[in-house]
Write the structure tokens for this entry.
Amino acid sequence: MPCGCRLPRGVFALSLGILAGMLAAAGAGASGFSAPEPGVKAMGMAGAVTARADDPTAGFFNPGALVLVKKGKLTAGGAGEYLNQSAYQGLPPGIGAGTAGQQARRLSPFPHVFALKALGPKLKVGAGAYTPFAFQTEWSDPDTFAGRELTTRSQLQTYDVDANFSYLVTPSFGIGAGVIYRSSKLSMGRRTSAFEPDVGPVDVGSLAIDTDWDNGTGWDAGFLLKPSSGRFSLGASFRSAIDITYHGAGTLTQIETGDAQFDALNRAALPYGVALPLTSAIAFPATANLGIGFAPSEKLWLEVDVTRTAWSRFQGLTFAFSSEPGFSRTVQQGPWKDTLSYRLGVQLEMAKGILLRLGYALEQTPQPDASLAPFLPDADRSVLCAGFGRDWLDVAFQYVLPKSRTTLTNADALNGTYSGSTYRLAVSITKK
């Protein structure tokens, strides 16, 4: 083996077998409802760090890299995601023809913290807390939005806590594995309507849906081959699928129409102000990552990563009301499709230890046209990234630009075009 290192033949064969198994086991993807990468160095390089992970955030990107981290005991920080624009333009046929909608602009925080501790010369343990999946929509002017009976707002929140052990097989080869505990919550709002004589359909209720914080468990594993020369590295990691079943309730609040008799009839017919039990479920995807890094010079690092995520496990999303079946809705059609993402990251060391980072990611959407809806409008997207680091401080910026996407086959006949853009700014500190 080049670069002045030698990996035992059996270990090398085992690592190739693990890699082949991981890539076969997972489907493909990013996009969907993936959250920003929980690491500011990684964000500056578009997430292309599987073969480099060199701080405690390696617990997320590649557990096998933890034992090869030379500096860094604690990393804490977060990203702020600002929805710059998200617009809907209705098209025929269907209920949205000739209408338009706009999401309210908002800032969403995504904090993270990772710690790393040596247990001996060949063993390290890492722990982290972060958000792996999330989305949020809130449509302006819900009284007039054409899709208000489908969604006026929606949100998925998830928090992972993981613990990983990483072992140094040789001076240049580390492996790692651990467990993941996920806690998650769903919420959404939508309108309900009734037919008023001489007027037609009118809004008579606002349904607020909230689940409990429910949980599930999974695992992760990875390896990193990083010869002592530092000119080349190869890494791979896998994060397992996690299934979560949600329990919660929906509450219907009456919207007065101004017709006292009609409003009284609705109060008698509809379950206003009652907690209506519901269930839902999400099959979160497994992901596999392969990264290859190369240093053309001592100051320059280049890495290319490919990510596969098994979005096809996601068979749709339904809120099922046991006591009021008429309120049950499928808000995302399934199955989604497996997708791929491609990431390129560059790091350049400048004078006085200043590190400049650049990156680009191309992420496919797993969402079929029939599922493109105001609950979650997704599309293929490009992510342009830049970052800065020095000593204990890292800063990153991302510009997320989804392609404009049109559906004429929406399952609820809300056809149209969705477009938008998002900014992300992240800051972290690392204790050496």
Remarks:
- The chain has four helices and 22 strands.
